[in-house]
Amino acid sequence: MGLFGTILGIAGTALNLFGQKKEADAREQSAQKNSQLMQEEANYQEFRTSRKLEDLAEYKDKLIARQRVLFAKAGVVIDQDTAQAVVDDSLAQFEKDKGIIRMEGDFNVRRARAGAQSFQDEAKSARTAGYINMGTTLLNSASAIWG
């Protein structure tokens, strides 16, 4: 291969390396953006769960107060077994609902954080693959030019 061929080979290799680096950078940035979105989703799920629990607590307080008012209007003493059983049953149901909300919220947060971690891993892989591809191109081109 003559001097002109060598120069073209080096230029082609440089362009190829530049393209591979740009592609790897783009894949890495995309994965990092997706990771950030998943982290924001995790934060949103934490907020949403907290808000649902607050709403449930407010509703519980209103319902129990309403039950007591209705019992009082009816002349029923809350300390009596039946009336207290109704209030206790309502409180127990609210505790179950609170547990379900927490469990769903925790699951959604864990799922979003796992997704964020997966995208972080993808970003690292994209960077590593880019460097490996660049090295392979460099070695193959050197072999073709000077081999």
What does this structure look like?
The structure is a single chain. With 147 residues, this protein is mainly α. 93% of the residues lie in helices and 0% in strands. It has a single domain (3-146), classed as Helix Hairpins (Orthogonal Bundle), CATH 1.10.287. It has helices spanning 3-73, 81-146. Helix 1 packs antiparallel against helix 2 (81-146). It is rod-shaped and about 110 Å long. The mean pLDDT is 91.
Please give a handful of descriptors for the protein shown.
rod-shaped, Helix Hairpins, mainly alpha, 2 helices, 147 residues
N- to C-terminal distance:
10 Å
Low-confidence stretches: none
The mean pLDDT is 91
Supply the number of structural domains.
1
How much is the radius of gyration in Å? 32 Å
| CATH fold-type name | Helix Hairpins
Tell me, briefly, the overall form: rod-shaped
The total beta strand count reads 0
Give the second-level CATH assignment, the architecture.
Orthogonal Bundle
SSE succession: HH
Report strand %.
Answer: under 5%
Main β-sheet: number of strands, strand sense, barrel status? none
Characterize this entry briefly.
With 147 residues, this protein is an all-alpha fold. It contains 2 helices and no strands. The chain is rod-shaped and about 110 Å long.
How do the strands and helices of this protein lay out in sequence?
Elements: H1 3-73, H2 81-146
Helix pairs in contact: 1-2
